[in-house]
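Hi L.,

You mentioned the student needs an example of a multi-chain input paired with its predicted structure. This one should do, with 675 residues in total across all chains.
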Amino acid sequence: MRVPLIDRLFDLLDRAAHWGVHPDYRKEPAASRLIGKLPLPPMLYLPLVQHAGAPARAIVKVGDAVLAGQLLAEAGGTISAPIHAPAAGVVEAIGPLPAPHPSGLAVETITLRVTGSEHIDYAVCNDPFALTPEELARRVEAAGVVGMGGATFPSAPKLHLGRRMAVHTLVINGGECEPYLSCDDRLMQERADGVLEGVRLIATMIGAGRILIGIEDNKPIACKAMQQAAEHFPNISVQSVPTRYPMGSGEQLMTWLTGQELPAGARMASIGVLVHNVGTAYAVHRAIRFGEPLTHRIVTVAGNAVRQPRNLEVPIGTPASALVEFCGGLTEEPLRLVMGGPMMGLALPSLDVPVIKGSSGVLALTAAECNETEEEDCIRCGSCAHVCPLHLLPLDMAASVRAGDLEGAAKLGLEDCLTCGACSYICPAHLPLSHYFDFAKGERWANEQSQRQTDMIREMTEAKRERLAREAAERRAELMRRKAEADAAKQKEKTL
Amino acid sequence: MLIPLLSLSLLGGALGLALALAGRFFKVEGNPLVEEVAAMMPNSQCGLCGLPGCGVAAEKMVNGEVELTCCVPGGKVLAQRIADKLGIPLSLEGFEEIVPQVARVNESICTGCSKCYKICATDAVFGASKRIHGVIAELCTGCGKCVDICPTEAIHLEEIAVTLRTWRWQKPLAQGVQA
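Structure written out for the whole complex:
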């Protein structure tokens, strides 16, 4: 027999189950300063890969003059996003330049020499809710909106998917659980109405009746602002969630707010939920209401090596060095440069790389902040298993990877791992656990590719052999036929 | 005249029949393991291992005469699968992953003679005679047969560059003794 009250109690206990870590927030002083506006830099560098999926295709040529908001590159596939000019200028070059990535590898990039801020005529829409969901999604697609939380998954395919999969709940992620970052916090504090309109537009597009907005309880002002903005909408519930890392992971927040769990390997939409970031909601609002493509974003510039940490609204394509310069430059040589948050962000070889659509932060961290410690022996304390948000066994998984047993690691749930880094953070022996998982995932992917290629080569070889045999047989048959014809003709001649 | 002719053809016929029967009744079963391993090989007979073909390579692998990692297009993954099949541990020591190569056609020199796509075992080279040829990189094993046969030296092998899509994290350098 099910007793609702007891069920609910168990439910609460279950949700409060232990996972996650509590790193220092280190969000101040950037979090309490107003969003600054970075002036247009002289040069903008726009990589053609700023999103998950296929690279965009440049449609401008070197020497073309463009206006702000003009399309520079169109989407290169269904899972892709177009790229627009953040400012008026002249296309100076299109070619490989260093990407904001730990490898320092080059990526095709459009270099724009900025001449001013004149923009194309934006199609302002005064009554966006009168538009059909399809039309709204089409406009979001054309505006090049991608997931602003860092995953940069193109938003439009997700919106289309939502409509097809009968999604009932829209979860809006205002978790921002990474230390240092406060761009979503400031956005919600200063532009709550815009964010909320974006949220309602997304809900309209995917046909979700219930909207849950989750904000970590270390952002009370943002939470208040959002609650005020949502006052008149009974289907929107703005909830304060406990501060613990990685609460801002879509899956964790969704489970916390809805009580639903995502089966391993399943997509969120399959259980009737979609998660979007608050930054994405704001970008959707700008795209629909003002017709503006995604050309700017808010970036947290922080770290103890930065003189005046703060949040800046910057044109996408601005070199990271220009952001740090605007914040008063560096006070000391940073040990580590990071794009994104310190837990899941990407270490940068230098600041001479552009801010892209998914760059939530530019961090210059000093040696004191990095806490680089020598690795020691695993004592099998189990802390990593305790904090893993997916209840995996990081210690065993890492041991398997270390021994070269990738399949063993996969059996322990490697592919479910978010590489959130909570295990690496908590490990008293300072083992680079999530590094092992990053490595193992890459290795497994490469192995899969290699296997696929071997199979394909075998298939193609067989196909060619068969084809050659068939062609030879056909030739022989043709020859026989001709010979028979010739014989018949000869026979005829003889009889005549 | 007739006697030697008849006797010789009779002899030939009888011996032939005997051989055919012997072939059927005294057939030596091949090592089934070799056949199984051979079925796992790419079978494009690229010759990058230095052996006359995939079948021979499979046999030598089973007999332990060559390293399991000798197949270039198959790489580490194939070596691991063969090791699993043979039930022997795979030692990757001293194994250096060869940077994969692909053939590339220089369009300004290609005369469209079609020799390259006739020799390509995987149909990775496409085109028609008197038309410039191209290469499908995914199918190319980098065997270089097309390079050798090209009369105008219009094809060369190129290393596949690492891109953001294919870049991967290196294995962490182990320091302490771990779990």
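You could point out the following to them. The mean pLDDT of chain A is 91. The first strand of chain A starts at residue 36 and ends at 37.

Best wishes,
N.
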